[in-house]
Structure prediction request, 226 residues.
Amino acid sequence: NAGVTQTPKFRVLKTGQSMTLLCAQDMNHEYMYWYRQDPGMGLRLIHYSVGEGTTAKGEVPDGYNVSRLKKQNFLLGLESAAPSQTSVYFCASSYSSQTESQYFGPGTRLTVT
Amino acid sequence: AQSVTQPDIHITVSEGASLELRCNYSYGATPYLFWYVQSPGQGLQLLLKYFSGDTLVQGIKGFEAEFKRSQSSFNLRKPSVHWSDAAEYFCAVGGRGNTPLVFGKGTRLSVIA
Prediction:
């Protein structure tokens, strides 16, 4: 089992460029999450999904879009990157509810210049 | 909505000394409570969780935490710290309505010889 994987690990974007971060899990989990981690801010939830074909907004959704076309994948898109989106992005998954143990990926470090 | 506070940004302890990391939460009912650990450059890993029942919960790596309703606290403890425990520790709280977890801002633990 690979668990939760994230692609890419690092990325540098220029302001206004777009990109997609891919998260994949092989644990048959229903719930998937995207967080961003900034110094002194802890983890903040961007978007989440409670099952294939569903998405919902978290605490900081502005500037991001997500899709869950397949149960095992959760994509995070930035349509027009801004320097404020420089962060480390973590994907996580849990089996069947928000309050079950979440399994985290290794993170993607994104820099927007 | 629930919230969580970790009052200590950074703590330094000597190897072999005991450790207590503080976590205070705000929620109207009995919450779900979690402690996660993040080693440098990695994703988060669940240490332990409290849902109900015995208020003293045991986790991995020799950690334990105690839920104290009267103090709205869920402090993490370890009797003897090892150098490998140096990491960032996050407390998280979940509500009973299957709402997303809210993470604290984290406490960074340094271990000195």
Residues 40 and 87 of chain B are 6 Å apart (CA to CA). DSSP finds no helices and twelve strands in chain B. Chain B touches chain A at residues 9, 32, 34, 36, 41-46, 49, 51, 90, 94, 98-101, 103-106 (CB under 8 Å).
